[in-house]
Amino acid sequence: MTTVASPLSIRLLPETAESEGASVQMAKQVAPTPAGSGGMTLYFEQKVPRRIHETTREWSVSLYPTTRSTHRERLALERLTHAREALRHCVDFDPDRYGGAAVIAGTRFPVSQVLAELAEGASIVDLAEDLSLDRAKLSQVLSVLSAYLDRPR
Amino acid sequence: VITFQFDENASSYKTAAACDAGGLAKVALFPDEWRGKRIKDRQVLARFLPGANPFVTGDASMIHEHPEYIPELHAGLLVVSPPTDRVRTTTRQFIKETIDALKKRFPGWDRASFRNSILVLRDDERVQLWEVRSGKPELLEEFHVAKPEICKRLQSILAERASRGTVEALSEPAAADARPAELKPN
Q1: Is the pTM of this model over 0.80?
Q2: Mutation target vs B (from A98, A114, A133; most B CBs, 10 A cutoff)
Q3: Taking the CB of the first residue and of the last residue of chain A, which one, N or C, has fewer CB atoms within 10 A?
Q4: Inter-chain touch B92–A97, beta carbons under 8 Å
């Protein structure tokens, strides 16, 4: 992902990603973004597969490209925290499973495929029945991703 | 009739039913007892590659990250993976389109043996042949199967590789040794 100068960005700390694992902890540190953009950077203590880490080392997520409201930032942090926590229960990031891709918890079924299948017109019911997946888990993944991308107002 | 063993993300009942109806191939779905059990890539390779059926997966990284679990003689590994230079993700439709395209260009595919071959199938009618040599994966050749003479060449290479031997030819202790310790019976 591209780094965008934005009031709120998330940055992974390379030095904390040495050990392999999947869990993303709460924001460890909050600091103002450089260049006086008026926002802040959330530093996460994160364990990610090294292969993924190398590609995500520099990523930032732009949540509010136009707004500088601290109220919104607080809401965003709150939402993000809950979304991340929920994500841990329904999505696995295991470097030894499906090449470390985000997969539906417990399975070898990548989340990216769920989204792509829906984009091709499949329904959750169809996916669950045809691929022996847990329908509730599929719905949960989509809800959590939705929350993750939402802009709290 | 050739039987393909599908990985979990490809194990579609509809695909299996369509193959049954076609009468040329069968699909072995991902085992029920393994679903939801956090099965790792190396466990999958250790279970399916020494088997009789070519293993079909969408996970191209397996070849690069677990070459030590790909024995010299194996059932065949077919990776159906979209090229990285386009916005396309593996889906049931993608797998079907890619395999259908290959079948169209590959007369007698149902009688071909994929034994001892690692193929990466792309949806642009290109097929890559890989091999694990001294524990490292190597791309041997890329075939543009839209050209009949190239397709014929691929077929003869596959036949030659299949003739190198079968997994069943391994003695039972040798096969057991080839299995990772964590999967050996107690």
Answers
A1: no
A2: A98
A3: C
A4: no
